[in-house]
Design brief:
The chain contains 4 helices and 5 strands; from the N terminus they run βααβββαβα. With 138 residues, it is an alpha+beta fold. The chain has a single domain, classed as 3-Layer(aba) Sandwich (Aminopeptidase).
Length: 138
């Protein structure tokens, strides 16, 4: 199995992979905009087929947000998600000074927080304030 991580992601790849999840459906216009406006986006290919992807929203100051990490169900459990996240973290780190404080956040899908903890992310404790979300037009 040949896994490659590439610094690119197409509309079709994003849409196809998102459709493998139970996440809220997005319009084509939303997908076009999120692809265009993501600071970094990567895809994972196995033997030439796109099986995973991820992206980062980043202000190039101190805040980065890991978004939409998806690995197709048939490709999960093979280290592909780890490679995607590691590459995205590397891309962000390459764009800040080595001594700069960086706040890297995410919202894990249900049952996936353990995956991110293995990569160095920690759950936010109430003493530091809750992470929160507001869903509009869901």
């Amino acid at each position: 199995m040949d896994i490659s991580i590439e610094d690119n992601l197409t509309f079709e790849e994003y849409k196809d992979l998102r459709n493998t999840t139970s996440w809220t459906k997005l319009t084509d216009t939303q997908i076009e905009k999120l692809i265009k406006n993501s600071a970094f986006k990567v895809r994972a290919k196995v033997d030439g087929k796109t099986v995973g992807m991820g992206r980062v929203l980043f202000d190039f100051g101190y805040t980065a947000y890991l978004a939409d990490i998806i690995v197709a169900p048939e490709a999960q459990g093979k280290g592909i998600g780890r490679k995607i996240v590691e590459r995205l973290i590397q891309l962000v780190k390459e764009n800040v000074a080595v001594t700069d404080f960086l706040n890297f956040s995410l919202m894990a899908a249900q049952g996936k927080s353990g995956f991110y903890e293995k990569l160095g992310f920690t759950k936010r404790e109430e003493a530091n304030g809750y992470g929160m979300v507001m869903r509009i037009n869901e």
